[in-house]
Amino acid sequence: MRNRPFRILFLALASLFVTCSITIGIEAQDVELSVVPDVVYKLPDISKLPTESWTFYLVLADKRGRDGIRPIESRVEQLSGGAVVQTTILPESTLAGMRRRNFSVGKEVPKHSLRRAYARDEIFDLRYDFPQMPIHWKIDGVRVTLRLILPDTTELKLTKQISVRYYSQKTSFIFPMKGPGVISQGMWNNGGHSGYGNQYALDVMGLTPNYAAMLKDSEDLNAYATWGREVIAAADGVVVYARNDVPDNGPGANPEDVFSKLPDPMLASAGNAIVISHGNGEFTALMHMQKGSVRVSRHQTVKRGDVIGLIGASGDAFGPHLHFQVQKGPELFKFPSLPVAFENLKAGNLARGAYFDAK
User: Fold this and answer.
1) Rounded CA gap, 231 and 359, in Å?
2) Is the pLDDT of residue 238 over 50?
3) What is the pTM of this model?
4) Which end of the chain is more exposed for a tag (fewer CB within 10 A), N or C?
């Protein structure tokens, strides 16, 4: 009987441990980590170095809607065949600078905000960039372990393993315009597009045969060599979206003042645009064409090389150019873009600021 107090103390501690374990388990079920986009693709860098890059967001959601959750440490392991190649520890101070709410929609978010197309419940998100990683590492996954502090000071640890791979393009594309031009905005790993839905997009401007951007010393839209250049279908397909009513933005105009007042203002930010399904899960989106120049309509079949519109300056465009991207679904802005290659252009011609001559 002399051991009874110790037995009581042991049982009390055990009961407390079980209670804590259950509490932590419940908390873990309430808090969820997801990766955006759902599939992460790496992209060979356009440089003399044998490197590649990729990026993704970790989005934290809480079924209880608590705003007081904060990250205090992130352990990032790069994997190759299951083996850890490199480990990086990000402290709370770094995570505080990374913390955003890129996917939530509150009352303050305008109706024309692209965020509404891909919104989801979140407490916060963290963007992880992996620029210029050595190709010989053969990274095929990333494991992120995130330590969190809950509002009641409970610590929680969540782990997410993300597959990283090259994209296997299904469609053989030609460039969506002919003749000389320049890439005015490239892919995310080349200092270009970096949003959820456009990280592999290209902005394109046409040039004169002498590679001049302007035809005359004027601010008029028709002074640009790219204004009115023909836009062509990059591959056979069926049109699933077409818009033709968005005014072009003149010199000095604020595009938002124009497209935000139109029907479906979020879609109007793409200007006069076309989305083509290629029948294999790949869709091409072409944006910012001249008002009234779109020559195709929904459900129409197009052939590779068909003229489908003219380059303009409609929607969220501060000057004439064509925005082109391959994406995973038919709706503008809702689906992530995909890496793209063209059979009639070398990869180096797709770098930001690179000149090309598409035959």
Assistant:
1) 13
2) yes
3) 0.89
4) N
